[in-house]
Amino acid sequence: MGVRIILRQLIVFRFEAMISSDYHQALWEGEGQPKDSLNLEELRRWMLKSEDYADQVTKQLQELFGTLGSLSLLFKKDKQVQKLIDKIYNFKTVKTKYPVGIPSEELDGWKKEAINQLQELADQQYGKPIHELLGAIKQNIEI
Fold it and tell me: Is the whole-model pTM more than 0.85?
């Protein structure tokens, strides 16, 4: 299931792009929303990038859920495998908070912290559960 690595990375890329978009929007708003701002251009660029990644994430999730459905049928009597499949099906959706009221000099710290939290969540919600499922299946097959 190479989708584990690809999906985790695409989710990180997508939400890093959203965070970068929010970051540049906050900077743009802080400078009075000029129409010729570099921050406005960056805001738009990162938003488009985020939307592109959203399409790719959707395709990978579709592939993952198809695979999970097949595994559920193949290992329907194995409670541990079923539990791990359910854990993946019920993952948390990644959410980011817009940096409301954060002074521009603190935005870099906000951005770094948001990206760190995102990477941890991606590992906990996607990387680790899929890795655990693969281990359980491998163990089941080796019996």
Answer: no
